[in-house]
Write a structure and sequence with these properties.
Elements: E1 6-11, E2 14-19, E3 27-29, H1 32-46, E4 49-53, E5 59-64
Parallel strand pairs: 1-4
Antiparallel strand pairs: 1-2, 2-3, 4-5
Length: about 80
């Protein structure tokens, strides 16, 4: 995971979003769906990856919002 990626995780009875490298949660929610939507919005705005964890801490899903680099032609021409 890269610095700045957004993680949605369950802790202390709440779903939380934290930007990797940060010390505290950006926001919290009682409902998982609300936290996932908020985390996705943060990741999209920051153009980073959004990682959703299960309550046990395993990675459930990953979505990448980083800009894609254009593919280079096979012959090396531009």
């Amino acid at each position: 995971m890269a610095e700045g990626d957004v993680h949605t995780y369950f802790e202390d009875g709440l779903w939380k979003n934290r930007v990797e490298g940060g010390r505290r949660a950006s926001n919290t929610s009682v409902r998982r769906v609300d936290a996932v939507l908020a985390g996705r919005q943060i990741a999209r705005k920051r153009r980073v990856q959004h990682v959703v964890h299960t309550p046990q801490g395993d990675v459930e899903t990953e979505r990448d919002f980083r800009p894609r680099r254009p593919a280079r032609p096979a012959d090396g021409s531009l």
